[in-house]
Amino acid sequence: NNGVVTINPSTTLDLNTEYYVQIAATALTDEAGNSYLGITDTTSWSFTTVANNTPVNTLPSASTVKEGDGSTALADTIGIADGDTDNQSVTLTATNGTISITTTGVTVTTGDGTDDAVIAFNGTLANVNTALDSLTFKPTADFSGNATIQMQTSDGNGGSDDDTLTIAVAN
Predict the structure, then answer these.
(1) Cα–Cα distance, 142 to 32 (Å, whole number)
(2) Which of 149, 119, 143 is nearest to 59 (CA)?
(3) Counting CB atoms within 10 angstroms of each CB, which of 3, 48, 68, 125 has the fewest?
(4) pLDDT tens for residues 131-169?
């Protein structure tokens, strides 16, 4: 109809893979009833799917917080870039303290988003970045030294990133 042929693969095409389309002779006819000759080779209509852009975590080089000051916002310093804007799954793991995020727009799968040692969540890239923008860290009471937040990110298409932020906790 209207000169448009739509092809719907029965499975998801693998990223960064070459494919070709073959069409049997007489599979298509024009308005006059003439049969299309078909495509029987592997080069006339070939294409390669795009490669996955892996997510890239952005963390500050280091941070300093004061023990006893409660939760410290790390906002505007942590985020994810992903050129193909895939949905993201993130696991944040804190040592020598707890972390919190705003959970609006994301699905939390580990922890509840408030004062957790580990928070795992997923959602759209925009919603995940909004949650990361709300990230706070609260050091363990009476702790002084280095704490860390490990950020593991996956885009579900084979791309991942794993980085760690070191936080100096001072008295």
Answers:
(1) 85
(2) 149
(3) 3
(4) 999 999 999 999 999 999 999 999 988 889 999 999 999
Give the chain's end-to-end CA distance (angstroms, integer). Answer: 74
Side-chain-side CA neighbours of 114 within 13 Å: the count stands at: 1
H/E stretch holding 132 reads helix 125-133
Distance (Å, whole) CA 9 – CA 145: 55
Instruction: List Cβ<8 Å contacts ≥24 apart for 162-166.
Output: 162/57, 163/57, 163/59, 164/59, 165/59, 165/60, 165/62, 165/63, 165/74, 165/78, 166/62, 166/63
- Each residue of 109-120: pLDDT tens digit? 999 999 999 999
Task: Tell me how far apart the alpha carbons of residues 67 and 141 are, in angstroms, rounded to a whole number.
Answer: 7
Pairing of strands 160-170, 63-66: parallel
Pull the structure tokens for residue 7: 């092809």
The helix (run of H) or strand (run of E) holding residue 165 is strand 160-170
Number of residues that make up the chain: 171
At 80 the three-state DSSP class reads strand
Measured distance CA(135)–CA(142) in Å, rounded: 22
